[in-house]
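Problem 12. The chain below contains 227 residues. Write out its predicted structure in token notation.
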Amino acid sequence: MDCLKKLKNRYFIGAERRCLFLRYGGLFCLLFCLLAVPWRAEGFSTIDFYRAAKKYKSVNPFGAAVHCSHETGNWQSRLWREGKNGAGIKANRAWKTLGMPYIDILSEEHIGGKNVMVRSSFRKYRSLKKFLGDYSRKIRDDYPISAKHNNNIWGYLGGLYKGKYGKWATDHRYFKKLTIKAVKLAPEIYGHAWKKKLHRQFETAKGFGILEKWQEMAIETAMGGGS
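Solution.
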């Protein structure tokens, strides 16, 4: 009996310990892999942003979604992942003086006819809600044409070129990129009627004289030559 007991302790208990080790070791490895994978902005999507932006009066929710989706590289940029800054809003001296958080990032800007890399400080937000509140105020205060036409995607995007202190971005192709992004995202936001909605808003924007001729041509090109 003693021999059998010794054999049981030697082999069965050892086997049980090995099973426990393999079980918990496997769980540890799985957890490590999950944490190591750079998940796509925690499953965040353009439709998530659009729904959140609908709560803010100064912005066109679809226009804001197009704008920020482009700025963040489809929600992949470091500035978005670490700072929830969807529009590249910079941290000026007043922001820093107040002790507000910011991130220093090397980004490309169009200066003197050339694309150059510039290190700049950008505002950092704790949440999407904090960002949208600040973004909405900036649109209202600095881009009044966008705020005025917050019910028209093309008027809203066109207004980003007519701010109180200049254009939103230094890239001379910026507006064309936004129009292409708008057409690409429209089915996700507007559903099967997206083409009619884009064309109807385009005609309205032209009727109000919101857009410059080159902007109208850019929109027509993005939509496939017009109606």
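Discussion. The longest helix spans residues 2-36. Students who got a different answer should revisit the alignment rule from Section 12.3.
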